[in-house]
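Entry for the shared binder. Reason: the reviewer on the internal report wants the predicted structure included alongside the sequence.
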Amino acid sequence: MNIKQNNFFKKSLLSLAVAGAMSTSFIAAASSESGAKDIEVLTVTATRSSLNIDDALTSQVVITRADIDLVNPISILDLLSSVPSIDIASNGGRGQNSSIFMRGTNSDHTLVLVDGIRVSSATSGGTSFNTISPEMIERIEIVQGPRAALWGSDAIGGVIQIFTRQLSDGEIFAGASFGTDNYKKYKAGVGISHGDGQTSISISKEESDGFDAREGSETDDDGYDFTSVAIRGQQKISEEFSVEWLLSSDSGDNEFDGFYNGSDIKNHAWLVRTNYETDTNGVNNNTVFSIGQNRDSADSLRDGESQGVFETRRNQYSIVNNSQFSDNLQLNVGVDYYQDDVTKSTKVYDVEKRDTIGIFAHTLYTNKAWTYEATLRHDDVEDVNSENTYNLGVGNKIDENTRVVLNYGTGFKVPTFNDLFYPGFGTPTLNSELSKTVELFFETKIIDINTSVSLYRSNIDDLIGRRNGKADNFEKVEINGAELSLNYQGLGGTHDFNLSYTDAEDKSTNKQLIRRAKEKFNYKYTTSLSGADIYAEYQFVGSRTDSVFGVPGPVNLGAFQLVNLGVNYDVSDNFSVSSRVTNLLDKEYQTVSTYNTQERAFYVGVTYTN
């Protein structure tokens, strides 16, 4: 970081400190206004069983439906951008390809789940965040740090699990929003009961003319049109047995610059899950069996004509048993099996199918102020290799508000079909990427300020990248990071603050990994005034580098600041009005070299709920 950038960062930090603004961003233990009420927050992603977030030995962030309603995000990336140590890179605006980098790891080192279903592509390894409508989301659980020992491949940097919307019996919502770039969104949902069961149906349609996605001579606007539908339900069959189901569908089209100037997108996920609970000799057992499928399909277009279809289908099966021996001891064991199939893609792959089976065991034990965790997993990936991963953790609760946790975990990432077999790029002899991570985090309360500090180091061997135009394994990447999160309720509202430092270096070249900022700073202020809920958000992202095909050496991406504002007002018991301003200061910046970002934008909407 040069002197000018360093001074710029320090001045930005000082100006916010003077404003008295320090707290966590969406921090799970004190998320939004409800954090001070000591409400128990249960999560499932960290251990694959329901557990109080304060008992889990992981760094976690939970974004609730109340948080989503307050922020009024246009995309899920608006929610993730303020989470500590998450960098976002977009090839243009909404509707374009986007990537997230968690704790300095690669964009495909974060496992993304929708209600337990893997939704990443087996060909590219990425997840299409832009087609997931925020209106479909009930909450998001974010686990930072390796969880491959529980979930298998991809969970090196962390896990993001999205839970679809849940509405109570008779609950209805409907609304519309309008904004910059001829933006329009229409949404509706209803909750239906059936005996001892309930089903929620949500739908969202969104379209925009967009803006010019990329620098160059092609200066037309690049728009999009997406429709999302989610059906989520459950039925209690008996006291011991229940069934859940999910159907999520995202479809639409988007435009972009280049030879391929558009695509038709069709993604879906479905799931059927059974829960069977018994109590034998004082041991409570909950057995969960799941079967589901994820499909992602993109038809690349050139002036409306198809140039090739890439489609991934992943059939997924799992059985997990949670045994609660006492209040202090639990054991989880399970088997995951999934089948990747790319036969419906354009015929470019020598191998088009792959099976993976994983077996794991996880235990959590509490003895007075001490908590211990251990996880062991074995994965067998067809035609690639087998991997053993593990997690070890220990935590000490010093007092009611203070605890310290030490974690060590390993992870792996299986090469994608593109890495192995794509013509002219793939290398069939690639190894899986392997990681080792150690983390120390400390949580306490200092003069009514909820405080969390995390320090971590990750080493990744055999990182997959491009060398001489071909996929290849690199020797080693070392990532060192630190996070500070603070939450304070007072001075007229709630103050959330986080500061993160991430140093991700390729040890073979001693250069920083691209599109990842060393410094990030986020501050959010929320309050209620005359019946209106108000939030103000400030983001600072430090300078990064990028690589551009045909350009020797790294390309610099400058640091930038963003200010976003929002207001929600209940006109009556049933009607509310919301407004949002993004990039209030109208800053010009790039998260990917040569790709534009949106200028100042305004949005307004009205929602009916009963």
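Summary line for the report: The longest strand covers residues 305-326.
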